[in-house]
Specification:
alpha+beta; Beta-lactamase; 3-stranded antiparallel beta sheet; 12 helices
Length: 396
């Protein structure tokens, strides 16, 4: 079995065993898992190779693209603003962003739905009818932020908002991120770092600073991943922003191993983090954690806020007719035996393409994260095994 490094507290040895077995049972390359219990770190394990080309080992501080785990950074930020009374999740987006409602309807256009009715809650639940944009933006325009904002303002919903759902891949982050910017004056990445990431010393970013590139793991795609459908298919448009981004496209120009991509703020699916950074975020959300500056932080999200976040909004077959078993609350995945097993009814988290996964649970007092650089497609059980080991450890 792969020799891993790090440690696990007494009582959490099952997590270390499961982490080692992943290297025996899957084409694991490099990975890490961190668990907080009651605000205290009880597991921090890592192993394998961060860069297959050079053999650079995975280290405790290694960071990796975690794709849509970015939605957790955004969702926790949004819930924090709501908790502070600065944002009403059930108010129209246009209250905070008047231009969001868009230009007057073209009288020749039929089937237009009223964007005035769209709330942040609908966006968090992927129910706003804006899963993709009609505008074909360039990479440079996406990186500039403002062109995406204008495209969202001009975009018409694909369905009557609130009546069904479909994954709002990148639009989720840009739309909610602009609401954050309108309220705070900071882009979501800057707000997260100033309010949460820096005070708590979390290795997690929306837009990776150049100073962190030396810690970055290089992604490798496992064989047998299903390709995306054609470029005109809505799913492909959602994932690639109409072809401006490649997927997986790891080593293509501006692919997911390109530092130029990681420097861009892609708040829907472009976070870079360590396992400890993500686990620390969810632990801070549900229990509070020790600050790097000394002392223990208060929990970020109150019990009432968590109760609001974990109320189910979307499940089953969505607009495209797919039903993978996922359940969504307000910006967070909820436990689902067939999609993302967690611990209990108050578990909430987000996953990322290729196997990344992080969640928190205030009933059990857990913050968990698993990161890896070998991307495996649907049915990847690496993180699920580790979560099961955490559950077993809590039952002892």
């Amino acid at each position: 079995m792969q020799q891993h490094q790090g440690w696990a507290d007494e009582g959490f040895g099952a997590v270390a065993d499961a982490f080692a077995r992943n290297y025996a049972d899957f084409p694991e390359l490099g990975s890490a898992v961190t668990v907080f219990a009651g605000g205290r770190k009880v597991v921090e394990l890592w192993g394998g190779v961060a860069d297959e080309r050079t053999g650079r080992p995975w280290e405790a501080g290694t960071v990796v693209p975690v794709f849509s785990c970015a939605k957790g950074l955004v969702a926790i930020s949004v819930h924090l603003l709501a908790q502070q009374g600065l944002l009403d999740l059930d108010a129209p987006v246009s209250r905070y962003w008047p231009e969001f409602a868009g230009p007057d309807a073209d009288p020749k256009r039929t089937g237009r739905y009223d964007k005035d009715a769209i709330t942040c809650r609908m966006v968090l639940g992927h129910r706003a009818g804006l899963p993709a944009l009609d505008a074909a933006l360039s990479f440079e325009e996406i990186a500039a932020w403002a062109p995406v904002v204008r495209a969202i303002e001009e975009q018409q919903p694909l369905w009557e908002p609130g009546t069904t759902f479909e994954y709002h891949g990148h639009v989720f982050g840009f739309l909610l991120g602009e609401v954050v910017r309108r309220i705070t004056g900071l882009t979501p990445g800057a707000f997260f770092r100033r309010t949460i990431g820096e005070p708590l010393g979390l290795s997690a970013w929306l837009g990776l600073p150049p100073s962190e590139l030396g810690r970055l793991a290089r992604l490798v795609e496992a064989e047998g991943r299903r390709p995306l459908p054609g470029p005109e298919h809505l799913l492909t448009r959602i994932v690639t922003m109409n072809g401006a981004l490649v997927f997986p496209g790891l080593d293509e120009p501006r692919g997911w191993n390109d530092p130029a991509l990681h420097a861009v703020e892609l708040p829907g699916a472009g976070a870079v983090a360590s396992a400890t950074g993500l686990a620390g975020l969810y632990a801070a959300a549900v229990t509070g954690v020790e600050r790097t500056t000394g002392g223990r932080s208060e929990r970020l999200l109150s019990p009432a806020t968590v109760t609001d976040a974990v109320r189910e909004l979307s499940s089953g077959a969505g607009f495209l007719g797919f039903d993978l078993g996922a359940r969504w609350g307000s910006g967070v995945l909820l436990p689902s035996p067939s999609f993302r097993p967690m611990l209990g009814a108050r578990s909430f988290g987000n996953d990322g393409a290729g196997g990344q996964f992080a969640f928190g649970d205030d009933e059990f007092g857990i913050g968990f994260a698993y990161t890896a650089n070998r991307m495996i497609g649907h049915g990847d059980a690496r993180a699920d095994r580790l979560v099961e080991a955490v559950r077993d450890s809590l039952g002892d």
